[in-house]
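Need Trehalase's 3D structure for a figure. Predict it.
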Amino acid sequence: MRWLGTILCLYLGSSWVQSNLEFGLTNAFLPQTTFLLGPMEVPCNESLCTGPLSEIYCHGEILQNSWQFGLQKTCPGDKLRVPAKEVLANFKKLPYPMSVDKFRSFCEESFEQVNYLEVVNLTDWKIDPVFLREITDEKQRNLASELNERWKRLARQFTSDVLTHPDMYPLLPVQNPFIVPGGRFDVYFYWDTYWIIKGLLVSKMYETTKGIIDNFSNLVTTLGYIPNSGNIQLTRRSQPPLFPHMVWEYTKATGSYDEKWLNSMIMEMEFWEKNRTIEVDGHTLFAYKTLSNCPRPENFRGDYSIGMNTTMPSDVWRGISSACESGWDFSSRWMQGDTTAALSNIHTDQIVPVDLNVLMANNYRYMALYAEHFLKIDEATSYRRKLEKISAAIQHVLWDDKLGAWLDFDVSLKKKNSNFYPSNVYPLMIPGFEKYADKVENYMKKSGALKFAGGIPSSLPSESLNQQWDFPNVWAPNQHFVIQSFLATSNSFLQQEAAKQSQAFIETVYNGMYNPTGGLTGGVWEKYDARSTGGAPGTGGEYIVQEGFGWTNGAVLDLIWTFRSNHNRLEKSSELELETSQQFALVYTAAGFCAMVAVVVVFKGLIKYKTRQASEDAEAGALLLGENDENDD
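Structure prediction for Trehalase:
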């Protein structure tokens, strides 16, 4: 009768596991689970992906059982051994109660671990690019050389088998090579690519940049939007919509336009306008609002536990997915009203974020300029009107005149979030918002955000801890956009602070690479500790800090290039917004000015100063004609 006792123990043990799963207790997910009575009940109805592979990789019993058995790292695997329909049919043959051994055998028969990416030789990469010779600071030149070298290390392309048999891989393959962020982020990611492109353009890698933009353009044609990444588990959410920014940066650097890209930009903006808008006081603004309301497949155990310990788990899971779409996963921004910044209080889809709306405003701006190039006047006029409309909405809904900054608005709580976030000053990048620069100066001085040696922290006060997009971490995207916001003004304090913040972050990254502390090896990190220029990597998050790192490489290269002068003279972006007649007028005005100065010199008979005066005239003319052209950014 010993076998009867064994069966009884198994039954009682598995019943305990199953009951705990139903109540969402964390210990129900211990890897020691070896026996399941039946499938889990997960109260959601919108998966993280769609298509024939979705029931394998994004929702359903295979994914759930894999996490319960502790096999999620290898099952489901990198590639299907048999078509998806056959995998699902074979799984349905497995009876419950199910043991871990039977499930493991199914996994081994259904999936395999393979390399789906390969290192690629970038034909436009140079070991000693010309731009390095224009960087006069030796330390910064050495760092720039290191960052340039990393493009070669981070370059990838999908294998020929992936391109030939895409239905067997949980991927969204693209044709051209791309740059990965690094570490665990081993495929292309959407918003990371903006700063990667900024760095590639400094390295004059125009062919690689064009191929990356083509990849994204083709994704928009196929999906109607650009997904979070090339991993199918992340494809039903996007990321900050920076595609028009990428296109415009390439066009500024090369003077090249592609009408196909304009069509892709139009399609992507239509997606955001249809699926990501929110109404506040009669104004239409944008918010991160994914359709998915299920636990993320990449962190199923954690999400399930958090959601099932709340009264509305599907709302929590949508908030988590939407936060991942924001790129700020996770931040106290999405948990206003909870001083502990707990994910159980997350409601990202009910928050109007400053930065998203700034990006959309400038998207309309760049698309208007792009449409004008192709003589699409009606389209250009339409985008300029959209720019005006969203600019007015940002000012009406998000501006806080008392503080002197723009604040996220929580629709559910009907109030602004008064905490400091770097995004609170991003509207300075919108044309016409410079008039608020003096108030922003006072805000920044009072905020305390400028007192940290290594850069601007992701949030203040420092008590808003627990999440990786909070104090004390400084991230390259935030640091870069704050600097660009300051540079968009003529406010002398903000201009000087832009140079100071640039130097601080460059120094932080330099020390992290060449003078690491605490027994760490040198590296370029995804995030840093803002409290010191020592280069210590940031902390927190669902994974250990990653090294590589795509957006840090690109942002720092761009900052080094922007402030490359010996005297840190601030260089402004060259705008392609001047019409031809305006450009000629500027040239003729400058030439007339120089001629007038020469006549005055001769008339006064200052012969002995002739040589020196000519030199000064030439310098004045150069400043008039060329000051805004020295920086490709």
